[in-house]
């Protein structure tokens, strides 16, 4: 699926602070709420340092947390683009302590 087609499936709606500001061990440069085919999922971009996002965390409507590796998901001017994203690219994660 092309980025433009996936862009049509994603709607940036409002700032979400589901982890709480500063509560993540990774540091979270952005909080996003996205609407996708599966319904509303919540995600926060986190990085190993403050400048390079590595993963996108999404939470499904059922509460399952998924870890999407970059560059399958990338951020440009506050919007999220998914390149060749497939269900097999998602990695279910165990929430870290404090989540």
Task: Throw out a few tags for this protein.
99 residues, mainly beta, five-stranded antiparallel beta sheet, 1 helix, disordered C terminus, Bac_photo_RC_H_C, PRC_barrel-like_sf, PRC-barrel domain protein
Describe this structure in words.
The chain is 5% helix and 38% strand. It is mainly β. The chain has one domain. Strands 1-2-3-4-7 form a 5-stranded antiparallel sheet, with no helix packed on it. A hairpin with a 5-residue loop joins strand 3 and strand 4 (65-69). The longest helix has 5 residues, at 3-7. The N and C termini lie far apart (32 Å). Residues 1-53 and 70-99 have low confidence and may be disordered.
Strand order of the largest sheet: 1-2-3-4-7
Overall geometric form: globular
How is the quaternary structure best described? Answer: single chain
**Helix share, percent:** under 10%
Largest sheet: 5 strands, antiparallel
> How many separate domains make up the residues?
1
Number of DSSP helices? 1
Q: From the alpha-carbon coordinates, what is the Rg to the nearest angstrom?
A: 13 Å
Overall pLDDT level: 42
Low-confidence segments, given as residue ranges, are 1-53, 70-99
Strand content: 35-45%
How far the N terminus sits from the C terminus, by CA atoms, comes to 32 Å
Question: Which class best fits the helix and strand makeup?
Answer: mainly beta
Quick one: how many beta strands? 7
Elements, N to C (H/E): HEEEEEEE
Region (Disordered): 1-20
Organism: Deinococcus yavapaiensis KR-236
InterPro entries: Bac_photo_RC_H_C, PRC_barrel-like_sf
Protein name: PRC-barrel domain protein
